[in-house]
Amino acid sequence: MTDVQDRPDVMTRDIPAPAVTIESKPFWDAAAEGKFLIKRCNDCGQAHWYPRALCPFCFSEKTVWEESPGEGVIYTYSVMRRSPSGPYAIGYVTLNEGPAVLTNFLGVAPEALSIGQKVKVKFQPTTNGPPVPVFVPV
Questions:
Q1: Residues 59-95: pLDDT tens digits?
Q2: 44: buried, middle or exposed (CB in 10 Å: 19+, 13-18, 0-12)?
Q3: pTM for the full model?
Q4: Which pLDDT belongs to residue 4?
Q5: Backbone angles phi, psi at 65, to 5 degrees
Q6: Which of 90, 119, 123, 124 is the most buried (most CB within 10 A)?
Q7: What is the DSSP letter of 121?
Q8: For residues 37 and 67, is the Cβ–Cβ distance under 8 A?
């Protein structure tokens, strides 16, 4: 399969490197290995995104890292047309595990996106930082 950056008919764009903190370092280390992690609370059982030490549902400190296949559906999206790099799309993906992830959509023209469309995670390289998760159509 051809990488999306080799195809002029699909959208690509540079994404800045994320800030890596002590709390998020395990996530970014896994991303560098091509793994997508989410957090799950051992007290209430809820999976959550963005990974953080405290569960946003019950405020328990008993959260653990869990590898996710990074698959889900587009919940909503917006096309940013006023950009020096051309139009691009951002939006929310509802992961199969339940959490919603704010993300960029790459590898597809914004006009080809649709709510409910199946997508999967892909890691986009950044300059001087770890790769960031973006979503592409299945």
A1: 999 999 999 999 999 999 999 988 887 789 999 999 9
A2: middle
A3: 0.87
A4: 44
A5: -75, 145
A6: 119
A7: E
A8: yes
